[in-house]
Amino acid sequence: MPKTRVIVVDDSALVRSMLSEIINRQQDMECIGAAADPLVAREMIRNMNPDVITLDVEMPRMDGIDFLSKLMRLRPMPVVMVSTLTERGADVTLKALELGAIDFVAKPKIGVADGLKLLADDITDKIRIASKARIHRLATPSTVAAPAAGSAATNAAAPRPAPVASPSLGRLSTEKIIFIGASTGGTEATKEVLITLPADSPAVVITQHMPPGFTRNYANRLDGLCKISVKEASDGERILPGHAYIAPGGMHLSVERSGANYIARVQDGDPVNRHKPSVEVLFKSAARIVGPNAIGVMLTGMGADGAKAMREMRDAGAYCVAQDEASCVVFGMPREAIAAGAVNEILPLNKITAHVLDHLRATVGQALSRV
Length: 371
What we know:
A seven-stranded parallel β-sheet has the order 8-9-7-6-12-13-14, sandwiched between helices. Strands 2-1-3-4-5 form a five-stranded parallel β-sheet, sandwiched between helices. The chain has a two-stranded antiparallel sheet with strand order 10-11. It is elongated and about 60 Å long. It contains 13 helices and 14 strands. Residues 141-166 and 367-371 have low confidence and may be disordered. It has two domains: 4-132, Response regulator (Rossmann fold, 3-Layer(aba) Sandwich), CATH 3.40.50.2300; 172-369, Rossmann fold, CATH 3.40.50.180. By secondary structure, it is an alpha/beta fold. Helix 3 runs parallel beside helix 4 and helix 8 (186-195) packs across helix 13 (349-369). Helix 12 (332-339) links the parallel strand 13 (319-323) and strand 14.
């Protein structure tokens, strides 16, 4: 099998050397070049035609975000971001995912050499995934601006969109809960689902595979774009209609009953299916606690996390949908859920929200016809 050809782009000579060594130790990939800035990288990409590039954010002559934006418009290719684990690093990394980066690795602020050694498996796994990912050309500039280079990061929310008139979901908003699982490519896929939900939507509970330090920025970013309120979940809080709750990075999220209310349970624990947070943990609680009042949505991602638990949801009476292959960045988790017999419908990403809402409104009609 031909090796995956990788170019490393980072202004740190130490990081370039470490990443090159990590990549070259793998039997299925090789580092064919290392560039100190995007202008050098541009020539390398033209001449060497790599399969994947790893890209730093803050570099001389052109920052990584500007370079990524140009790259995804002119020569789309798989990119794995390597960003510093800081508040600004988290915000800019989310911008990179919005522009089309496949995934990211959070390098430590200090102790970089030892930190990268510990992250070697994560880095190479993400390069492998990126090499197989579906890439889309960036057609237009993003509507969400990245912080200016050198400026302090900000999580100031944009004005919340005005609610759009639509048939009310009535009491189903308090009875139903939408559960979303996602991994690679899921930050943008989840955003597309959430931004089209009405203000009176049932509660949404989300596990997106992300490390600590990124999910709060991600939730704040979505909160400024959506009609519903979006936040990082807190242990013990009530799960309310018109709200979405995102599992904190590095913690498992599940739901429990407290009297007549549903509450969020945020707990530490061992990784499940190699992930923390794990979709399996969230979906198992949906099957056990919410049963037929749950709606499951499996979005783009590598692996099988959540597939078995989604089957448990369906067996418990939940209605479950999966994103189709053509619209996925990586068709791993949806494919496994489909293979497990867990899915009622397979849908393109841009049709999932409307279909879920139609299903809910049909449920309202069925309930009224029985009265």
